[in-house]
Design brief:
This protein is an all-alpha fold and 312 residues long. It has helices spanning 2-7, 11-21, 25-32, 43-51, 56-76, 85-114, 121-124, 131-138, 152-162, 169-183, 199-211, 215-231, 236-247, 251-258, 264-274, 278-286, 290-302, 308-311. The protein has 18 helices and no strands.
Length: 312
């Protein structure tokens, strides 16, 4: 029955049979034939491709092409979709390119309007990295008081999602989106919660650190915020620093940052991995946890470092 339904193009009816058999490839092959510009009912292809995970990157492209940025941001912001990290990164790259293109298109159209002309074909094409900051530098009126060219919630969401991409050309575009956002002025220019205040300034530090451009200076921004937050009893900046250091592969430093924002018990496995229980000892002291303090001291002694409890 599944094969008959598939031959008739009835994917909704065919999928349960192939799913039961554990053989998604025939449905996947059928989905590959779909094009974003095709007319017709897209509910089933989108559900199967993106939400059922049969062709998630293509499916996400269809959401962008047919339903726009708002729906695309909602779809990817659910967190658990797509389930494979590489597919999720590929979808976020698509989103970043799309929003960057929409923003630059509106900026160049506004500039052409101010000059009493139509934008050229070159201006309406996707911009290569580096051109957006140059455009904004040359035309400061584009970010004058209360002038916004794109939905700011879309801009904020995309920038935050970009933190999960890793180094890639689209990460450079996301840094440019932060550059644009940091220039905005007026009543609706987003603020943020420390260490992302102003919002786009903080996120540019975060994304530039991941990109590896002058990473230490950008990481220092979060170190200072984490230090100030700890003095005030605010652990969120330390959580951000911890996440950033983990993202860029600096595990030992990430573990140190976790001392002020994670429970001693949660640090145990990671301390064992790096062969150093001093972070767990410090976390136990800081959080008044005598049970895990003793456990960490014992683990450190097994490593041949008996003075750690006095020094840690």
């Amino acid at each position: 029955m599944g094969g008959t339904a598939l031959e008739q193009g009835l994917l909704e009816q065919a999928w349960p049979f192939y799913k039961l058999l554990g053989d998604a490839q025939p449905i996947r092959n059928a989905l590959i034939q779909f094009k974003a510009e095709d007319d017709g009912d897209w509910a089933t292809p989108l559900r199967l491709a993106f939400y059922e995970g049969l062709l998630p990157v293509d499916g996400y492209g269809w959401i962008l092409a047919r339903y726009g940025l708002c729906n695309a941001i909602t779809a990817i912001s659910q967190g658990e979709l797509p389930s494979h990290p590489d597919d999720r990164k590929a979808c976020i790259r698509q989103l970043t390119r799309a929003l960057h293109h929409e923003l630059t298109g509106r900026l160049t159209a506004d500039l052409a309007r101010q000059q009493g002309r139509e934008p050229t074909a070159e201006e309406t094409a996707p911009m290569a990295p580096g051109r957006l900051p140059a455009l904004l530098d040359a035309n400061p009126d584009l970010t004058a008081e209360d002038v916004y060219h794109i939905d700011l919630s879309h801009l904020q969401s995309t920038v935050q999602l970009a933190g999960g991409m890793g180094p890639c050309p689209e990460l450079d575009l996301a840094c440019e989106l932060c550059d644009y956002g940091s220039r905005l002025k007026g009543r609706f220019a987003p603020r943020g919660e420390t260490p992302f205040d102003p919002f786009f300034v903080g996120w540019r530090h975060y994304l530039e650190a991941i990109a590896g451009r002058d990473a230490e200076s950008h990481i220092n921004h979060f170190r200072e915020e984490a230090r100030a937050g700890a003095e005030e009893g605010n652990t969120y900046p330390s959580e951000v620093l911890h996440r950033l250091l983990e993202t860029i592969g600096r595990e030992a430093e990430a573990l140190e940052a976790a001392v002020t924002c994670q429970s001693p018990q949660s640090l145990r496995e990671r301390c064992q991995k790096v062969g150093d229980f001093r972070p767990m000892i410090r976390a136990s002291r800081l959080q008044g946890d005598p049970v895990h303090f003793l456990a960490a001291c014992q683990e450190q002694e097994r490593l041949g470092k008996p003075r750690a409890c006095a020094e840690g």
